Amino acid sequence: MSCKYQSNALDIPLEVEQLPTITEHSPASLIAFPFEESFPMKCEATGNPGPEFRWTKNGEDFDPYQDPRLITLDDSGTFIIPNNGNLTEFQGNYRCFATNKLGTAMSEEIEFIVPNVPKFPKEITEPIEVMEGQSVILECNPPKGIPPLQIYWMTMSLQHIEQDERVSMGLNGNLYFSNAIKTDSRRDYCCFAAFPRIRTIVQKNAMSSVSKHLLDFTNSLLERKPSLLTPTGKESHTYLVKGEDLQLECIAEGFPTPEVEWVKIGFHKLPERAVVESHGKLLTVEMVNEEDEGKYMCRAKNPHGEVVHYFYVTVEEPPEFEIEPQSQLVTIGADVVIKCVVKGNPQPSVAWRVNGQPLNGKHSLFLQCQHHDYELMQSCFVVFNGAMLITVSPDIQPLILTENNLRYMAVEGKGAVMHCKVFSSPASTEGRERFSVHKNGSLEIQNLMKEDMGEYSCFAQNTEGKVAIAATLEVKGKRNRYSYPPRDLRVLAGTTIQFSCQAEFDPSIGDDFEILWEKDGMALNGSENARYMLDDGVLEIIDVSFGDQGFYVCVARTPVDQDMAVAQLSVVDVPDPPEDVIHSEHNGRSVKLQWIPGDDHNSSITEFVIEFEESQHEPGSWKEMMRVPGNHHSAQLKLHSHVDYRFRVYAINEVGRGRPSQATERYKTPASAPDKNPENIKIEGHLPHEMDINWEPLSPIEHNGPGLEYKVSYRRQGNGEDWKEHMVKRHSFLVKNTPTFVLYEIKIQAKNHMGWGPDPKIITAYSGEDFPSAAPEDVAVDVMNNTMMQVKWAHVHKDKLNGHLGGYRISYWRLRSLLDSKKTHGDKHTLTFSGERNHAVVTGLRPFSEYSLIVMAFNSRGNGPGSHPVSFKTPEGVPGEVAAFSVTSIQKHKVTLTWSPPVDANGVIIGYILQYQLINDTEEQGSLMSLNISADSNKLHLQYLEALSKYKFYLRCCTQMGCGPAVSEERTTVPEASNWKISDALNSSMTFHIIEGLEPGTEYTVRLMTKSWVDNSSIFEDVIRTSAKGISNQGWFIGLMCAIALLTLIVLIACFVNRNKGGKYSVKEKEDLHPDLESPGINDDTFCEYSDNDEKPLKSSQHSLNGDLKGGDSGDSMVDYGDEDAHFHEDGSFIGEYSGRKDRVSMEIKGNNQSTA
């Protein structure tokens, strides 16, 4: 250890005379590496007067200024040795001395080392021949060189020798085999010694080791208990200096391979810092201390015994100062005591020097300083050199070294320091106004306030005089602080990011505020990098790359204050491709793949994916082989035979998949017999006397060699037949002439030119199926209700199924409604029921009907014969909705309702139920009235209704099982009549009538009525408004329009007659389409034979309202003004309307009280 010159040197300004102090020198060892251009031998010192330098080499004077090959520097003790290729003569131990009139300072000794290039000696090594199971030691004996030394064992192709519990390298560099095996035999074991400090790697000549196998010996004779290859003996001693690393090694031989374990005697476990490495053979403890001393034991054991070795570890402590000598400044005549107390293990010795000359002394030194002593350089040597300074100075006036009238600015709430550096002898006394004063004379004020502003003075005085300086302090209002500091970012490479930095400051500072950005200590403001954009406290980086990673500092600065905020930018990306991907340990169909991971780009690799490509079947196509965890860098690969492989690896992290590595060299596995037989064998019988065998073929990579074929073997089960065998190259085979649905045994075996695959598994399957040959018997039907019945049957015997039973199918159809005596064959319905069952429920039947059904069995071939048909009848049900329900002949107090029976009567109709009630627009309803109607009725005149009221009518049809759903209609009765004008009777063949004498712009109600109807029902009614007076109201205009219309009609009739000349249909057909309302011969329901006792609607009117007019019928017929709801009013007016307009007309009449004509 040494006393640092600067640590205990006095702070004496150079303006004062003082002895030299060494400030810089070269390290204790200076190695002349061959790749360096020069080697500086440094020696720098300060002092007043300036020191002169001299050197010694190997204890003798050495003058670098006299050797022209050396480069010297002015006012410096440093000289430079150039690397001119001849450095050996400069090798040696150097020491520098700095001297002035007051004394001498001496540097530590510097050793200049010129290393030699290490080389292995040239030697011829004989092959080492051992019996399999014996131990082997391959010695390295590396040459000496500049440490550290690194040793590697590799082959001539630079493949590392794999090490494990059996094979390991010792600390001395030797390669140890606990027991040799046949695969250890090779002729290219090479030891490489690397010296990284001189950038040199040397190689020893290759060594051979041959392991022989004796057929006459068994493993039991080779097995033996362990013995130690290193270290030798029962115990050994190890001495270390505190802070060094402890390494203990035990390598044993024996068979089976011994296991090594470590124990510290007297302790339950090893020290916490102890690490066991090299497969248990090396114990390491870093930076040992006193607690690591003691007795350690290694034990090597196998089933035949054990061997132990004891290590006695001693930790020595280097010399250390307990009381370090301190430099002192004293006056003439003062007594000086210099203490030097040291400790160590073993106890160190102490020696003293004065100005480089030996001085007798012990741990402490007593001096009496005289006037002529001035300054002394004392050195305390404790193994290494130490130094302190004793200065004997005459009395001088104090000297203030700080500049006068300095101006300080600070921020309120922070602290301020005003400097006042003083030197004097004897020591001066200092006066201060207030606050805390440091030993160096500085005045510190904490938590500044506005009232602290002003001028301050520093005074220094001693017996020789007094001096002072002044300083001004200005206090600003607020200190800088960040309102929005930048935040740490973790981004994907190639993106654009922004750091935002906003700060607050004292407004009185004005424009002297600035925000600066730094990255890793380098200023970014004014950077020439175009990707860095700075604007108003925002730093934007475009296209972020990994070079942009680091710490970004935002500095908010004013002339009196600054604040900093730091943010870290981390850039992530997919991993780089793995490097140095190689395959080794080739063992036929097994190889070991190794790689070095690429950069993970700040996102840990989660897994590696190994891909392969083969050149024979799918060249250029890479397929995934396996995945390994991200902390594994090798994998053992199981390969197929007769495949030429290449491999590559890519890594995956949280960002995504990286690019794949470079492909390895090809490795072709030898051919072999198939490893497996075909799988997924399927047997299908498409025809009754065939059996189609199909299987999933082996993939090309599973062929394992050329000439792949399949042997198909089959035989009937249980009758003792021999296997029938066929060799095929395809992956299917058809067996013909088989009995129907017979159980066979089948096996398929793969074969190539190298041999047969493994014994195949036998599977069983049936030959082809045929249709079932029998129908189910004892079919019975149980009708459950009017829409559902249950069917039961007896199973078809399995011998008649001719295959695997798929289930049963029920086919049924409707013969007739029980209301109809005529039978018809309705649509057939089929239901399928899978599996073994003998009953089923059929739903969705129609009530009051007769049905027939059959039951049949089915298999994969199809349906068998059907059973004998069984007929059954369903009971009555509730009827469906009434058909053609309409409300007609709407009058003041009565309406006429007509309907037709339901399409689905579902039984014998026993009557109808009519319900009706008053309703209005607010959904309020009156009481519900009901009427029962006989079954043979289809019309009803409902009376005693309220005039101008809205009614809702509901009609239901009923059987013995109940009533069906209701149909409904809404109608509004008409108001009371007043001031009606009636025209003359019109011919029934007319299609229009002109009413004259109407007032322009007036609303009228118009009705068309039959003259002879005593109930005055109308068949048409509409509300019209005449136009205002204009040209369209003039008689001449109306006459002109009528003439044009008549002319157009004549032209159309002529065209129509010409087109139909010769007649397309008979006059009778035309008469049937257009019956004359006034002609005789129409049936009893016609208009001409109407009577009060038979209030049926006109046939011709109903015909037109139902939309049965053909395309050639006149569009002006009276029936075009009505629909199925047309009716006659009691006064004979015709008020039938177009469908959809009745409600609107009725509402207009209800709200209009004016007279109509």
UniProtKB/TrEMBL annotation:
Domain spans labelled Fibronectin type-III:
577-672, 677-770, 775-877, 878-977
Q: Kindly give the membrane topology term recorded for this protein.
A: Single-pass type I membrane protein
Q: How does it assemble?
A: May interact with L1CAM. May interact with ITGB1/ITGA1 heterodimer and ITGB1/ITGA2 heterodimer as well as with ANK3.
Molecular function (GO) terms for this protein are: cell-cell adhesion mediator activity
GO CC annotation terms, alphabetical: axon; plasma membrane
Q: What is its main location?
A: membrane
Q: Does the keyword Nucleotide-binding apply?
A: no
The transmembrane segments are 1035-1057
> What positions does the domain Ig-like occupy?
20-111, 115-208, 226-314, 319-474, 480-572
UniProtKB keywords = Cell adhesion, Cell membrane, Disulfide bond, Extracellular matrix, Glycoprotein, Immunoglobulin domain, Membrane, Repeat, Secreted, Signal, Transmembrane, Transmembrane helix
One protein family per Pfam: Bravo_FIGEY
Question: Which Gene3D superfamilies does the protein's record reference?
Answer: Immunoglobulins
How is this protein named in the record?
A: Neural cell adhesion molecule L1-like protein
Upper taxonomic lineage? Eukaryota, Metazoa, Chordata, Craniata, Vertebrata
Does the record carry Signal as a key word? yes
Q: Where are the coiled-coil regions?
A: none
Where is it localised? Answer: Cell membrane; Secreted, Extracellular space, Extracellular matrix
Q: Which SMART domains match?
A: FN3, IG, IGc2
Protein's organism: Cyprinus carpio (Common carp)
The annotated region (Disordered) lies at 659-679, 1074-1139
Q: Classify the source by domain of life.
A: Eukaryota
Record's family?
Answer: Belongs to the immunoglobulin superfamily. L1/neurofascin/NgCAM family.
